[in-house]
Design a protein that fits this description.
With 199 residues, the protein is an all-beta fold. The protein contains no helices and 16 strands. The strands form three sheets. Strands 10, 11, 12, 13, 14, 15 and 16 form a seven-stranded antiparallel β-sheet that branches. Strands 1, 2, 3, 5, 6 and 9 form a six-stranded antiparallel β-sheet that branches. The mean pLDDT is 85.
Length: 199
């Protein structure tokens, strides 16, 4: 079994999750009937996650959708136990009752002459400091560069109605780029929003 631990927050269907996930790949991944005991560190919770509401989530599509797993929480031993697991994929844990700080409605890009305009809309915001805009470019050899910070766009704090944002990345060289948003709240917690198409 290969387990890859990532430190990018994988949000779990509208609920706060820790900024860590586990991609579990057994050599045989069907009909397992396994029992998983996850021992968590309370310092991972932060950002409004309540220990008494902790549950496990799994995703079979790289974090696009999540399934909440029935399990047994033991706050004395700091464990969550899930039984009857038939297969594995990406797992995380989070608060079954805590809403996400920002609900993103859309994130798109339009390319012009040496300019890419990013547009995104939030449906609601809670404690939102703002959005760090990051990009990477395709190097020779078909390898992408490391993510670099382009700019920061201030958020609206707490707002229950939609908000439109935009940013123009100007004077860029010809080539292929990836963009993403790093949304940061006032407590320092963050999550990423990936742009699905490349420019």
């Amino acid at each position: 079994t290969t387990i890859i631990r990532g430190v990018e927050r994988k949000e779990s269907n509208g609920n706060l999750a820790i900024a860590r996930y586990y991609d579990i790949s057994p050599s045989i991944n069907t009909g397992l009937n396994a029992t998983v005991v996850y021992r968590y560190n309370p310092s991972e919770l932060g950002g409004g996650i309540s220990e008494s509401n902790l549950v496990m989530f799994k995703s079979t599509d790289n974090g696009s959708t999540w399934i909440q797993l029935a399990g047994l929480l033991n706050t004395d031993n700091k464990t969550i136990t899930v039984s009857g697991v038939n297969d594995f994929s990406i797992w995380t844990f989070g608060d079954k009752n805590a809403p996400l700080p920002v609900e993103l409605h859309s994130f798109t890009a339009n390319a012009g002459t040496r300019t890419v305009r990013l547009n995104w809309t939030t449906a609601s915001e809670i404690n939102n400091s703002g959005f760090e805009i990051q990009k990477q470019f395709l190097r020779s050899g078909n390898q992408y560069s490391e993510w670099e910070i382009v700019s920061f766009v201030t958020g609206k704090g707490t707002k229950s109605t939609p908000t439109n944002y935009s940013y123009d990345d100007r004077k860029i060289n010809s080539g292929k780029y990836h963009y993403r948003l790093r949304q940061i709240d006032f407590n320092g917690n963050f999550r990423y929003f990936e742009l699905k198409n490349n420019h």
